[in-house]
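Dear Dr. H.,

I hope your travels went smoothly. While you were away I took the liberty of generating a structure for the chain from your last submission, since the lab meeting agenda had it listed for discussion. I wanted you to have the full record in hand beforehand rather than looking at slides cold. The sequence, exactly as received, is reproduced here:
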Amino acid sequence: MTDDNQLYNLSRRKLLAGLGTVGLASAGAGLGTSAFFSDRESFTNNSLRAGELDLLVDWQQTYDGPAESAVYGSAGRPYVNAYPDSDGDGVQDDVPQSFVVWAKRNGYDLNTAAGQSAAVAAFKDAFFADLGAGNDWEAPLVALDDVKPGDTGEVTLSLHFFDNPAYIRMLGDLTGEAENGLTEPEAEVDSTPDTGELGESVDVLVWNDDGDNVYEPRNGQDVDVVVLFDTSCSMEWADSSAGCNANENTPAPNKFPQAQAGAKALFEELLAEPDVSGLGLPADMIPDANVRVGLVEYGNDTGVKVPLGDDLDALRNEVDAMSPGNSTLLPTALEEAIDMLEGSDADEKCVVVIGDGQPHDTGNNEPGSGSPVNPLSGVTYDDWGATYSVQLTEYLEDVVGANVLTVHYEVEPEVSLATGIDTAYAQGTAPNYDIVDGEIQTIELFEIMASPVSGDPLDINRLSFAADRDRLVCVLHRIAHLCAGEVPLFYGSLDGALEALDDGLLLVGNPRVAADPESDAPVRECLEWSCTYYVGFEWAVDPAVGNEIQSDSLEFSLGFEAEQCRHNDAPFESEDAEPAGQEVTQTAD
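The corresponding predicted structure, in token form, is as follows:
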């Protein structure tokens, strides 16, 4: 991305005008003569610096074409290419879920401007691509020269922008389509020798993905979600590992209200009923899950606050009525979640844990007479309930059949748990997880408690998310898609998709709410920076098209454009800019 394409850096003219205003204010304060008492106070070295808005991408592309083809990476079919891909096998490297956790674990001081700048630069360079000539990726994203009826492909693009919130739109453009003459079998069925048919013969689906390259609408499924919400005293103090008092800690008056706002946004997205009737989707692709949500408080007044159901107002009102206090009674809350879900026959079950610190449940730190699990032989239970929490989440996964998703909210990566947790047992529940020096940090506990992304216990990629106050809503919306289903943005022919993308397709942070005409929740068009937003683009050549597309070729571009949110009530209504995009070529032989 070249400097002249970066939006909203102040021009030199504007910068000098701003500095001039500061200078005039200082000069005006010095009028007077030495005959009178006088004093002068000056603010020196005033400066203005233009902010930045830098949009970067990473991706994973797959192709279900010929079994053996040079287009695949060394991992073989279906992997074509990815970014980042350090070994060139076509499979994407692991990309950290959280910039903040990555930066702190790698020694960057985010409390200083220099430390934050260095961390952002290193993070960008390690994981994300600038597109175009002279940048990280110059080649076409898709370059397939032998597509056949029945072939399919997919690319999920992850969007990242830094330094400022932004509006994002997806763009596309048909740059070339050719018949390339008629083969003998093609001539028998194709009466348009000058017009290619590939664009109208390729079906396309574009959707808000959750990051796994698969469209999952939860079509017709029953989904039960239990949310565990932390109201312990640390939720109103800056340091979750310190005491809840002014001698040991710093008040954080916005911390708990923003957690409440995040929880309500999660409820709204889970219970939204997307209306996608205008897309012409097949019946089995409609996102129409039957979702029930329950709420369990743990901390100030631990217990079930809202049983499983679809009463959005009850969920909102209960969260609004909560206040922080008391200890972090997480094991008790997990037992409540088990009681709520164990008798459920839902197709999908989720337990979402939102909290800012380790368990502190000294009265329920190990299995007792009413526990759903039995004491483990050879396992030492710590006084705080951390080991017991791990055991309960394992029970939720293995016996209840639920996915456990954890959100560590405002947790410092270097904060360790209180001593006594059974590290060997924790390691056993996540066999490939690296517990350094036999000591578990709070974030590591949340990661171990969470379900593996792939469902394979050996997978160290867990359904665990880190969030600070500004990014909690973003993280919780992604969790809503994982549990309640994803929402399509377009369905139709490739020609139709490119026509729609030519005008730009605005992305939103809560697409389930945006697609629900009855929702009374706000649509999040302005997206938070340093969050991750996923867009899936799947194509398939109609198996019934036959010889009509022989030798046809098609070229098009895909891209994304970011525009600042501040002072911008009408995004993308100014003069159109070129998207940060990539050319795509397809040829049917």
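Two observations you may find useful: Confidence is low (pLDDT under 50) at residues 1-34, 184-190, 583-589. Residues 144 and 238 are 53 Å apart (CA to CA).

With kind regards,
E. W.
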